[in-house]
Amino acid sequence: MTGPYTQRPMEPARAGTDFRDNRFDGLHAEAAAAVGYSANTLRSVRERYREAYSETLSRWQSLRDELDVADRAPTDGARPTSSTAPVDRAADAAEAGADDARRRALRGDVEGLTMDLGDHQAELAKLEVAERTLERTWLFLERGDATLLTDVGGPPTAGDLQMRVVEAQEAERSRLAQEIHDGPAQALSNTIFQVEYIERVIESDPLLARTELRFLRELLRRELGDVRAFITQLRPPLLDQLGLDGAIADTVEHMRTLTGIDITTDLSAPSDLLGDSQRTVVLRVAQEALQNVRKHALANSVIVATKLDDDGWVLEVRDDGRGFDIGAVAARGRRNFGLQFMRERAELIGARFDVRSRPDGGTVVRLTIPTEPAVGGEESI
What we know:
Layout lengths: L18 H54 L16 H55 L14 H44 L4 H29 L2 H23 L2 E6 L8 H22 L3 E9 L2 E8 L6 H5 L6 H12 L3 E6 L5 E7 L12
Parallel strand pairs: 1-2
Antiparallel strand pairs: 2-3, 3-5, 4-5
């Protein structure tokens, strides 16, 4: 395979170069060729991925146009009828039902493709970052650019940090995308059908229409609360207003009111030992852990605690719920949005993230932030 990173032909060995020098030259050439081949292969894959993305985007647009046409079509109450043609109400009802089913199917296809396009766009961004990383590596081997060198076990390079930030951002975006798809997006889709239903019955049954409007109002109020919660997740103003302990306590109170679960706190670790980014991560992990309890645990009680121990500054969220098989959850990979989000956040600040659980045995989520340089030297697991 040829491409911009294909290695140039090696020059003949200089006179007097011994066997050992030739061997090292050959190994260097082999390494450069391997990286160049990988870069060219990834570039080809990325180009084909972009083409496939463009095709999917065109299909999404076509479906959107088709859905717009279907939504603008007259409903059964507004269908033009001939004054001389016999009225076949059963046929009209069947046709209206078929139109509704078609709109629902189209709307489902559009929503599904919208989610897919978001995932594909994130994946394309990762491929582009990976390609640039391989390009830098190839230039480093070919030109001997020593600025890419770091000591073993030393600080990460700018490229390493960029990759970690991108991965964390994409994990958070994927999690929020799934949350929005399952919550507000689905609710808004349902409200469209409900409005269409109200339009059909408002003349024939005003009382029923008013009842449906009340249900619709309550639904929109609930979903507005969820949207505000998503906005809060994007930016935590409570940290500035209440401090870390106050923000955790506020989150706990909100979750206690929402679920009725007995949630207690024991916040004994001093938050002034943490930097701004560390406090943000602690709050995010606490919020996400409590969301997981609400959605999955079926717990009766939860304890949110902070403490200092030999490993560092610790946040622990413990519930007595149904637990889960960690191995089975890990096998689902990227679909495990909550755990992936917490793990990525922890890695960005050099913290360790652990989850302990078993079926019918509850769950413990633990975030440990080293408070001393090189404490233990342990990696996140």
